[in-house]
Automatic annotation (TrEMBL), chain A:
Residues 136-237 form the HTH LytTR-type domain. It comes from the Bacteria. The keyword Phosphoprotein applies. The lineage of its organism: Bacteria, Pseudomonadati, Pseudomonadota, Gammaproteobacteria, Oceanospirillales. GO terms for biological process: regulation of DNA-templated transcription. It comes from Zooshikella ganghwensis. This is Two-component system response regulator YehT. The keyword Secreted does not apply.
Length: 238, 561
């Protein structure tokens, strides 16, 4: 069985694709998402084998969503779009395939056939390394907010997941620290913390080679021995 | 007594020269107080030469010269100011000095003082009291000269040696010289003042005429440079200038002819005058005054017109687009001034034609852009609509059919709306057709409320006023909204204004040119072009909260409401 996630902001479009896919016994649709943020949550939670992903979606496009994925366990991506054929071609390397809406059944068959042949191996996506994230999708008091990287002071992970600290307080995000580290200028200062260099007001050196960062807004962020050296190097300190 | 008479005699010669001189253009700077350097130089040269002439015409008495030099020095100072006065006096003085005699030095000094003194009077009246009119009164010239001449006598008594001789000279020449010079300066000033008044009256009448023509012809050519509009312009020029006849031509034919000879100079007939062709070809003013350059009507030998000035009309890049011709009948001489006036009128009309052309081009451009909106039902909309229909066609064929009908209705409306305006009801209907499709596509992500009172339904609005704005609100607002989107379309009447507003709850408006932003820009442009800059679109945005587009239109009373 191949598990599939359908992502499209238009319900009728999802429905139409679901209809087409349901005729294939080897495909099981494990979820549908109406925007990229929901989709990110589902991908991280459900680990589908393949994601049928619309490109034109509110706030965060399908292309941007791909750049937010962990490359280690990313699913196969099949872009589905009504237009922007050229835009997809530019991203062909990052997608397994692309389909044009309205989806023709015969064309979909080809995609599925290829998929069945490949899905056992992890997808060989070229990471969208160049596509740095400008915005971090977050949940803030039941609202979805897109926080600008520059506004983030630091990010950290705990048992409940990954959080980012900005002027507005702590918000939960679906992105992993790893993704944040590779796609944003945030730096590790602790195994569980990423710091925005520009948000540092001071670094207090503690005993045992530990330290603590005080941010512009007065938050304290721990610095572990291992990362302190890297931070010092970064600032050209001994 | 003898002396007074002869001094007055030389003064007469002076006046003849001055009078003739006053008819030349060099005289012009004299009648206006000017601070321009070249004008000061002219004043200096003119009055220095009067000074020198005054000395030459003088009578030799007792090894001295009874003269009218003071007139030049005083007037130079009065009209040119202290500096000019000083130099005029100095020049006159040095010249006198070069002629020798026992009063040479005294005269040189006194003439310089006279010029300087008059200059100070000029400075005092003008800079301290701003009494420019007083400056030009003969009375001031008289008094100034009187004082100056008395001063001169005093200087002679002090400087010239021996004193006894100076004393007997002064006794002899003082009364006649003081009197003759003062009277001369006063009369001279009178000539200048008359000339000044004449110039002023003349330019007043002239400007008034030109202004009147400008005022009456404004906007006539906005609808094009054609026979009808040209006839109206020609009529106005004919009435205002009082010339014998006025003609306007384009480069091939007569567009209008008003006045003497309109029985055979017929609008619509080709140009036959060689002078007109010459004016067009060389882009220059052709002037046939009927005296030096003969004028003969090219159509009829017994035509009553005797002189003409042909002035080219210029369009873009000074290209000739026609001519304007002012005629006078044979029994009337062509006044030279008509030529200047004619040139002014030609420039005025050229500008009006040009701005008319621009108006027309602007209108054409907007029409073309409108066509573009019609043709440019954007492919994305079409794709999305087709996808939506294809998505539901199997499960809900009835609904799919209905959507297709709405789509075709929307398209038909788009293509058929070639007229400029429609009723507001019609416009709302068009929005409805559009929304049907978008509703199906966005489902519960889109809610639209339309709140426009029915009484407003019959108001005429430009076509494509509302739908492009609603489309924008969806395309750039709701479609990017993660939460449920809402659009509120409302309309109110505020006195003679119709105010429509389209508000979305996305608040994603960005004030930057979009490649597909044609919709909103053109709606605004069309409204402004049609009703003026007070009307049109206004955008307000509270980021991430709402965007509101307000459309303000005048309500054109059609009489039936």
């Amino acid at each position: 069985m191949i598990s599939a996630l359908l992502v499209d902001d238009e319900p009728l479009a999802r429905e139409a694709l679901a209809d087409l896919l349901s005729s294939d016994p080897e495909i099981s649709i494990i979820g549908q998402a109406s925007n990229a943020i929901e989709a990110l949550q589902m991908i991280n939670g459900l680990h589908p084998d393949v994601v049928f992903l619309d490109i034109q979606m509110p706030r965060v496009s399908g292309l941007e969503l791909v750049s937010m994925l962990n490359m280690d366990d990313a699913p196969y991506i099949v872009f589905v779009t009504a237009y922007d054929e050229y835009a997809i071609r530019a991203f062909e390397d990052n997608a397994f395939d692309y389909l044009l809406k309205p989806v023709e059944p015969s064309r979909l068959q080809k995609t599925l056939a290829r998929l069945k042949k490949n899905y056992q191996q992890p997808p060989s996506l070229n990471p969208l390394a160049s596509a740095d994230l400008q915005l971090i999708p977050c949940y803030l008091q039941n609202r979805i907010r897109l926080i600008k990287i520059d506004d983030v002071e630091f990010a950290f992970s705990d048992l409940s997941g990954v959080h980012v600290m900005s002027e507005e307080g702590t918000s939960h995000t679906q992105l992993t620290l790893k993704t944040l580290e590779s796609k944003t200028p945030l730096l590790h200062c602790h195994r569980q913390y990423l710091i925005n260099i520009n948000a540092i007001r001071e670094i207090q050196l503690l005993e045992n080679g530990l330290a603590e960062i005080i941010t512009q807004h007065g938050h304290k962020v721990p610095v572990s021995r291992r990362y302190l050296k890297m931070l010092k190097d970064r600032f050209g300190l001994q | 007594m003898q002396l007074i008479l002869s001094l007055l005699q030389q003064m007469s010669v002076f006046f003849v020269i001055a009078y003739l001189f006053s008819k030349t253009p060099i005289f012009k700077p004299l009648v206006n107080i000017s601070i321009q350097f070249p004008h000061k130089v002219v004043i200096y040269l003119v009055f220095s030469s009067f000074c020198i002439m005054g000395t030459y015409f003088g009578l030799e008495i007792h090894d001295a010269i009874a003269n009218t030099r003071a007139v030049g020095a005083v007037l130079g100072g009065l009209l040119g100011g202290p500096l000019v006065g000083f130099f005029v006096g100095l020049t006159g003085g040095l010249h006198r000095y070069s002629l020798g005699g026992f009063t040479d030095l005294a005269c040189a000094i006194s003439t310089t003082i006279e010029g300087l003194f008059a200059g100070l009077v000029h400075f005092y009246l003008l800079n301290k009291h701003r009494k420019i009119d007083t400056l030009f009164t003969p009375y001031i010239a008289f008094l100034t000269t009187l004082v100056a001449e008395i001063a001169q006598m005093v200087v002679i008594l002090i400087v010239a040696k021996p004193f006894s001789e100076a004393w007997s000279l002064v006794k002899l020449i003082a009364p006649p010289m003081i009197l003759a010079n003062s009277a001369g300066a006063a009369l001279f000033m009178n000539i200048i003042r008359d000339q000044k008044t004449m110039y002023e009256k003349f330019s007043q009448a002239f400007s008034a005429k030109a202004l009147k023509i400008a005022e009456r012809t404004v906007g006539i050519l906005a609808t094009g440079f054609n026979e009808e509009n040209s006839a109206r312009i020609a009529q106005i020029i004919y009435e205002e200038t009082g010339v014998g006849a006025v003609a306007i031509t384009d480069c091939e034919k007569i567009l209008a002819f008003i006045g003497h000879g309109d029985d055979h100079h017929l609008p619509g007939t080709p140009i036959s005058s060689t002078m007109t062709f010459k004016a067009i070809q060389h882009n220059q003013v052709i002037f046939a005054d009927g005296v030096e350059v003969p004028y003969r009507c090219s159509i009829q030998a017994q035509c009553g017109l005797g002189s003409v000035v042909v002035i080219p009309l210029q369009g873009d890049n000074e290209q000739v687009i026609g001519t304007i011709k002012l005629y006078e009948p044979k029994h009337k001489l062509f006044v030279n001034i008509n030529r200047t006036l004619g040139e002014g009128i030609a420039r005025l009309i050229s500008n009006q034609i040009l701005s008319g052309l621009h108006e027309q081009q602007k209108r054409l451009l907007i029409q073309a852009e409108l066509k573009l909106i019609q043709a440019q039902i954007n492919p994305h909309f079409l794709f999305n609509a087709l996808n939506t229909i294809s998505a539901i066609i199997r499960k809900q064929p009835e609904e799919a059919r209905e959507l297709l009908l709405h789509l075709s209705r929307f398209f038909r409306k788009n293509l058929k709306r070639d007229c400029e305006s429609a009723t507001l009801e019609d416009e709302i209907d068009h929005v409805h057709s559009y929304l049907k499709i978008e509703h199906a596509r966005f489902a519960d992500r889109l809610t639209v409320k339309i709140d426009i009172p029915e009484q407003l339904n019959s108001i005429q609005v430009p076509t494509f006023t509302l739908q492009p704005i609603v489309e924008n609100a969806i395309k750039h607002g709701i479609a990017h909204c993660l939460e449920a989107g809402e659009i509120i379309i409302s309309g109110t009447r505020q006195d003679s204004l119709l105010v429509l507003s389209v508000e979305d709850n996305a608040g994603l408006y960005e004030n930057k040119p979009r490649s597909d932003g044609l919709g909103m820009g053109i709606v605004d442009k069309r409204i402004k072009a049609r009703y003026g800059n007070r009307y049109g679109l206004e955008v307000q945005c509270q980021p991430n909260q709402w965007t509101r587009i307000t459309i303000t239109l005048p309500i054109e009373e059609s009489g039936d409401d």
